[in-house]
Amino acid sequence: MSRSSLLTEPTTVSEEMAGVRQDFPVLRTQVNGKPLVYLDNAATSQKPVAVLDALSRFYREENANIHRGVHHLSERASDAYESARGQIGLFLGASQGYTLIFTRGSTEAINLVAHSFGGTQLKAGDEVLVSEMEHHSNIVPWQQVCRSTGAVLRVIPVSQGGVLDLGAYERSLSGRTRIVAVTHVSNAIGTVNPVRRITALAHAAGAVVIVDGAQSAPHLSVDVRETGCDFFVCSGHKMLGPTGIGVLIGRDKILQDMPPYQTGGGMIARVSFQETTFAGIPGRFEAGTPPIAQAVGFAAAIGYMQGIGIDRIGSYESMLLTCATERLREAPGVRLVGAESDERASVLSFVVEGVHPHDVGTILNQEGIAVRTGHHCAQPLMEKMGVPGTVRASFSFYNTVAEIDVLINGLRKVQEVFN
Amino acid sequence: MGDLTQLYQSVILDHYKNPRNCRSMEHADGQAQGYNPLCGDQLTVWLKMQGDRIDDVSFVGSGCAISKASASLMTLAVKGKTGSEVAAIFADFHSMVTTGADPDTSPEKLGKLAVFSGVSEFPSRVKCASMSWHALKEALGKTISGAPPTTQPAQSPAKPPGEEPL
Q1: Hey, which residues of A are catalytic here?
Q2: Radius of gyration of chain A, Cα coordinates, nearest whole angstrom
Q3: How much is the pTM?
Q4: Total Cβ atoms within 10 A of residue A27
Q5: Cβ contacts (< 8 Å) between B122 and chain A: which residues?
Q6: Contacting A residues, span 357-376, partner chain B, CB-CB under 8 Å
């Protein structure tokens, strides 16, 4: 079935996406004698054959270290690495005025900014704003840099329904605000934050904005330049690519003045025992041998997503999320957590009354269903929501409506066990 | 494949829904907290000693059915026991939930705790079953009379490999 006929109307969508499932070998796995229902996509996505092949082809045919090699393979590997940078950058809108730096993942990208920008720019009394719905990876690096610089970490509150309090945000901004670090999409409850507005307000106050796109880039069309933020991070493995690679997209004007995060080979212009001159961007921030094959695999993943179309992916997943939300809302004894935002993407958090999320997860696993349970690396948000943790189902375009039925039936089984 | 009915036996569900000795304690002789950073589960265990024996033991915490039931049944199993007796029970319990050792080989020690034998089929849940025991051991260590023997039982390493936080 041709991909161009996808998403013509909701009832046929899941059947037509069946073709897409063939591209993901792991989806044929049986778990406890049942077909795998993989609903843990916010933790990591599965990988299509196109990515597996790209990795294999690189290692079989092009593998060499990059840069400064005059031999054939090194030139090919360098080309592959740099063209991956170009392709991924284009996909995310890192054009004019922005540079894409490869990192180990979103976490390292945030740490890079916290260390190299925050660590050198923040002074005692300055303020860093983060939202109450951040993943620990967008809290802890800022907390640490505030501790070492004397800056103050402030929190933008989130409502019980999971919506960022923009009024409180606006009131928090002042001449002391230097950095605003917010997630584009919450990994725990799926809320999509208005990052364009958040950025405009921060800029008006003279602050720099970093957007955590780990959960948005796999599901929404992202255009960093259009968003206007100063830094944007995301991870390859959540976007059908390999683990061990992510990106930091930063505004050239800011990056150029930032000191290196790590030092070593590959990031220098000239080294003597007395002194080192650092390379320009992006090389300055890519010390050591970078994740070359992973960059190639990540680019193949982007190519695969482009083949389907990110907008189609987004609208199909949105249909799945709406369907799952309705079904879970109707399910007796199930309560959605923080799902009141008008705009949500891919993630649904809930609790089964009287049953701890871990027990729910264990019983669902017996039915072949993979969900994540616990605090989702967002303990402050869980505390705000008044739950020790939740069950999180997170969707990708290779999931189906039929799998949502399996989830609903699995939840009935949970309630039978605990009756 | 683990058997769900083995894991969630009615005794476990009963102790989850109606945990025994689930209360805080004033003037305790020993107190310790258990915490699982993986899932955020936590509990506090309190002890009152009478000589070298546990006179009273209680707990409060939040957690899954396995961890709550384990804490509840633990309180029943260790009341009146000495530190050494508790260490021996924990060693057998631990061996049962990690390696699937047959609880019937030491029925006089494990008794009702045998309901946790199904846990060994679910490696990710071992920590839930043993969290309260680790806390109890620490609480005992804080009391003078209940101090555990200086040598560890061979079957019970202090930090079993499968239980390290990630």
Answers
A1: 377
A2: 22
A3: 0.91
A4: 17
A5: 362
A6: 357-359, 362-363, 366, 373-375
Q: Can you give the pLDDT at residue B4?
A: 86
Beta-carbon neighbour count of residue A405 at 10 Å?
Answer: 13
Q: Which residue type sits at A362?
A: T
Buried b (16+ CB within 10 A) or exposed e, A3-13: eeebbeeeeeb
Cα separation, B64 vs B129, whole angstroms: 9
Find the helix or strand (DSSP H, E) in which A181 lies: strand A177-183
Q: What is the number of alpha carbons within 13 Å of residue A40 lying toward its C-beta?
A: 18
Listed in sequence order, the DSSP H helices in B33-110 are 65-78, 83-99, 107-110
pLDDT confidence of residue A419: 84
Q: Which residue's entry shows tokens 């930090």?
A: B159
Q: Does A389 touch chain B (CB under 8 A)?
A: yes
Please list every residue in chain B whose beta carbon sits closer than 8 Å to the beta carbon of residue A359. 8, 64-66
Measured in angstroms, the CA of A300 and the nearest CA of chain B are apart by 31
- Of B2, B17, B40, nearest to A389 by CB-CB distance is B40
CB contact under 8 A, A359 and B66: yes
Q: What is the pLDDT of residues A306-357, one digit of tens each?
A: 999 999 999 999 999 999 999 999 999 999 999 999 999 999 999 999 999 9
CB pairs under 8 A between A and B: 51
Query: Strand A127-131 vs strand A152-156: parallel, antiparallel, or unpaired?
Result: parallel
Structure-token pair, residue B120? 């060994």
CA dist A197 and A169 (Å) reads 11
Angle between helix axes A310-330 and A10-21 (nearest 10 degrees) is: 120
Q: SS3 of A281, please?
A: coil
Smallest CA–CA distance, residue B79 to chain A, in Å, is 27
Interface ipTM: 0.82
Please judge whether A417 and B38 are an interchain contact, meaning their C-beta atoms are less than 8 angstroms apart: no
Say whether B39 and A375 touch across the interface (CB within 8 A): yes
